[in-house]
Structure formats: C-alpha cells, structure tokens
Design brief:
By secondary structure, the chain is mainly alpha-helical. It has a domain at 10-20 and 42-161 and 215-260. Helix content is 43%, strand content 8%. Strand 1 (115-122) and strand 2 form a beta hairpin.
Length: 265
C-alpha cells in the first residue's frame, strides 16, 4: 500500500526540526550515582568476519544516502561468487567495528557512515511523520556490537526495558497484566503517556549514565550520537517495507530509554 509523501518545503523542514528540540544543559542531579569502571579492549577482539557475515545475513533494510540496501551488502559479504574478496570485506568491517568500540575516531572520518536520509510521510491527520533511514553498514556494525554485549545490556536495563533479552517482551507484559487483572483481588491503573520521550531525551545525560551502567557500550555510542541528516529524499516509499526509523544510536534504543532519570532533564 503506497504511503503519501509530503512535498519538501521550508515549513516542513522547520516542523521536522521542532520534533527534536535542543537539550537543556546537563544537570548533575540527573546522573546516576555509580562509580565508572574501565572497559578492557580485549573483549572486542572476539568480533570476527563470521559475526559480520551472520548479522548481515539476518538483517534487512533500505539504504541510507548511498542507496546501498541490505540485499546488496548481503550479496557482497555472504555470497562466494566474489572469490576471497567477500571474506576480506567482512574482515575489514570487523576491524572497523572493533575500532569504533574501542578508539576515539574523528567525526569527519566516519560522517558518511553516520549520515541518514530523512523522509517526511503524511499521516491521516495531515501532520508529518519523519522516517529516518540510516546506512545499512552502520546497522551491521551496531548489531554486531550489541550482540557481543547482550548480557551487559540486559544487566544494565534490568526490568525497566522488556524489549531487551526477551522475545516478544511487550506481548508477554500484556498477558501478565491481563491475567493479574482478571483475578478477583486484582486492580489495574493504566497511565498513558502520548508524548514522544525519546525525542526529548537529553543525549548528554543519557551517555554519561550509560558510561556508568554499561561502560563497554559508551565509546561506540559516543561516535553515533553525531548522526547527520544528509539530505531530504522526496522519492517513493511503499507501505509494508522495512522503512523503519533508525535513531542516531543504531540498534541500542532500549538502553537509552531505560535511563529514567535523564528523561526531559
């Protein structure tokens, strides 16, 4: 089913930017009181070309500004028709992943990797819905790092984020609440928050808290917080496709959304 695209105008650009207000100054009371621990670089040496190939094979999505979609990456990395070159490419991506997770890389070196396409779609009420499409290579890198640090992320988010480490977590939560409510002595209070908290999340506070809660993830997130909207793409997007939004933190939204004390600070 086709989705209506909004004509790109100055007013539309202004409205889209308003959805991401500037963060206020970092406040000390919003930081989690926990001693920072040092991350051993050696843990990322476990990232190999096999991990890159596996995550590419199990991923899907449109391309970012380069227009290289996941099908193309899958062909380049997973098919043996290119001789040994597919292994060389996967090994180079593994090296890139390890460096982004351990070293401070100047932003201008990786600005193209972090660039996104921003596509405004028209909603039923005539308002706009921004769809952000990041580079598939960044998705591969992000999935590889989060896969390696899965247990650390689950421990960091605890029970506040049902998406982390639990398959169909939201469905399980709904069934649990329903069963509890159906009991004779059960009571339920539903609080609906229609505001988009992630858009108002203070990234600086969130990163500082992640540095304390999940130190191995910090360096990579410090790089990806600089994601750019490179250009406005007014071309066709069809419904039912994998045109999902990718936030500037790649595949690690759960850990950000559980930093409860940093929301709206």
């Amino acid at each position: 089913m086709p989705v209506t695209l909004i004509e790109i105008t100055t007013d539309i650009k202004k409205k889209l930017k308003e959805k991401h207000p500037k963060a206020v100054q970092l406040k000390q009371f919003a930081l989690i009181d926990k001693i920072e621990t040092k991350t051993e670089r050696v843990i990322f040496e476990n990232i190999t070309q096999d991990d890159i190939a596996s995550n590419t094979k199990n991923s899907s999505g449109f391309g970012g500004p380069t227009q290289i979609d996941m099908d193309t990456w899958r062909e380049m990395i997973c098919l043996k028709s290119y001789g040994t070159h597919f292994k060389i490419l996967a090994d180079e991506i593994a090296t890139l992943t390890r460096r982004l997770a351990t070293d401070t890389v100047p932003h201008n070196y990786i600005s193209t990797l972090l660039a996104c396409r921003l596509v405004p779609l028209k909603k039923k009420d005539n308002s706009n819905r921004p769809v952000v499409v990041g580079e598939c290579l960044r998705q591969i890198v992000g999935k590889t790092i989060t896969g390696l640090l899965k247990e650390d992320i689950i421990h960091a988010v605890g029970t506040l984020q049902i998406r982390a480490g639990l398959e169909s977590g939201i469905e399980a939560a709904i069934h649990a609440v329903r069963k509890r409510f159906e009991k004779d002595n059960g009571e339920c209070l539903l609080l609906v928050d229609a505001d988009n908290a992630f858009n108002k999340l203070n990234r600086k506070v969130s990163l500082e808290n992640i540095k304390r809660l999940c130190p191995p993830m910090y360096t990579y997130l410090q790089h990806t917080r600089h994601a750019l909207f490179r250009k406005w793409e007014p071309h066709t997007v069809t419904g039912g496709c994998d045109a999902r939004g990718q936030c500037s933190y790649g595949n690690v939204c759960p850990i950000h959304m559980t930093i409860d004390s940093s929301i709206k600070q």
